[in-house]
Amino acid sequence: MPSIQTVTGPIDLDDFGPTLVHEHVVIMNTEYNQNYQPDWDEEARISDAVEKLNELSQLGITSIMDPTVLGLGRYIPRIKRIAEQANINILVATGLYTFNDLPMQFEYRGPGRLVDIPEPLTEMFISDITEGIADTGVRAAFLKCAIEQPGLTPGVERAMRAVGQAHVETGAPITVHTSPHNESGLTAQRVLKEEGVDLDKVIIGHCGDTTDLDYLCRVADQGSMLGMDRFGLDIFLPTAQRVETILELVRRGYADSITLTHDANCFIDYFSDAEKAHAAPNWHYRHISEDVIPALLDGGLDQSHIETFLVTNPRRHFE
Description:
By secondary structure, the chain is of the alpha/beta class.
């Protein structure tokens, strides 16, 4: 029986229950943390994360996919401690998150660079999936890259092609951070397809930030799933409009293309806890279970649609 890698070890695909496909646990720049966050309390933050994840588990969610990769502060020893205490499966990713340039560690190393070697990013991503991340024993379950308002910059393209190459080598599925406002999901699909990626194994993230149904249908028609995420970030798009967009997609026959998630976190160093709570009070792991699913059901969907969004589609992502 096929299995999926979680932080605490592999699980059978059949045990992969209701899943939120894009949730971070901790987003934190270590250099910033070490120099400018003297009040950081590691033990308290771990306890807080365990509590929040257990609250989510009590609502019936069994797994989250955490796309925190290089560029977002991935630190697996911390995630491993959290996963060992939480009653939920955590799947971690490999890849690189940038909207523009690559980190300087790759500026002079790679094909055609000062140090002309095969793409080191591809090698790193494959190793994280097949051998494990650093010396933690944890293997990445999926791949992550990003393309935003700056578009397909040289750094973004290089990271994306490395992700595509690692997918072809390992079969690991892909999540892409995109901006629907410049239709960058279509650009990502084109580049990944050029690398031989099966677009059925790609989630185009942050599709939930738009009501542009023409764009969403064009993305779905190429096989990728729509990350109808960022629920709770009403500053980007109010929940009611996000819900109505999903209802219309279902009416048009795209239920099999929809995933639900928040892109939330237990901690993010972009804001203080108070600032986050003030700007986006509903941006937390419970919002979909407590508010969004009831709204979808009130809008005419039934429980089988919810099962499709949370179980069938995420499971198919790994089949």
